[in-house]
Amino acid sequence: MPLFWKPYQSETTQFIESLKQQDPTLAQRQREGRALLWDREQDRDAESEFQSARVPQQAYVYQTKA
Predict the structure, then answer these.
(1) Where do the structural domains in the chain lie, given as residue ranges?
(2) Separation between Cα atoms, residue 20 and residue 22, nearest integer Å
(3) pTM given for the model
(4) Count of alpha carbons within 13 Å of 19, Cβ hemisphere only?
(5) CB–CB of 26/20 below 8 Å?
(6) Which tens digit of pLDDT belongs to each residue from 27-44?
């Protein structure tokens, strides 16, 4: 390995790193945005009701029942 060897960084990684340097609050805002949609408590009672209310799908969905 040469003395001045530098690990490879893709253009995408360089772009993301430059965004993080320009806006230090970016990571915090991303976590807040994720919390709005994904990081929620799960309602297990509602989930079990949804599962029990499912209607089985027929083998070929476009075929009419004859």
Answers:
(1) 10-34
(2) 6
(3) 0.48
(4) 10
(5) yes
(6) 999 999 998 888 888 899
